[in-house]
């Protein structure tokens, strides 16, 4: 029986389900949810491939009760070298997904990072971006996670 007192399991989409955190999460809860976990490698199963650089189709989202975004470009080096990729995967895609889920009345869970805490004292997206330009050592990764947090909350 599920936690909701019925035999029907709720449908969960885990975007980033093939990564380290996502795979462990899926393994821990698979018996309580009907889970679809996406993969970042398109050479694997095409039915679960998700390109976080280009977002998700709203058609994909409608099949699920809950959407969990665990995906991320987490390498600080990669984020600094490919700012557009970091922005797309760590900020823009989860922001769009959260908006779409809100519109549909679906729950959206976003995994952020303690790197976003570099920007905790700042309140607006504009001040975060300006402060990032001024700070030495503040990461692009942290910036994009912080901007996503602000937009989603």
> How would you sum up the major sheet?
4 strands, parallel
**Structure summary, number of beta strands:** 4
Q: Tell me the radius of gyration.
A: 16 Å
Strand-residue fraction?
Answer: 5-15%
Please give the share of residues in helix.
Answer: 40-55%
State the distance separating the first and last CA atoms.
Answer: 32 Å
Q: Which quaternary structure do these chains form?
A: single chain
Order of helices and strands: EHEHEHHEHH
Task: Flag low-confidence runs.
Answer: none
Instruction: Characterize the overall form.
Output: globular
Total DSSP helices: 6
Task: Please list the strands of the largest sheet in the order they lie side by side.
Answer: 2-1-3-4
What does this structure look like?
The radius of gyration is 16 Å and the shape is globular. With 153 residues, the protein is α/β, with parallel strands linked by helices. The chain has helices at residues 20-29, 58-61, 76-81, 83-104, 125-134, 140-152, and strands at 11-15, 34-37, 66-69, 107-110. The longest helix is centred in the middle third of the chain and has 22 residues, at 83-104. It contains six helices and four strands, in the order βαβαβααβαα. β1 (11-15), α1 (20-29) and β2 (34-37) form a beta-alpha-beta unit.
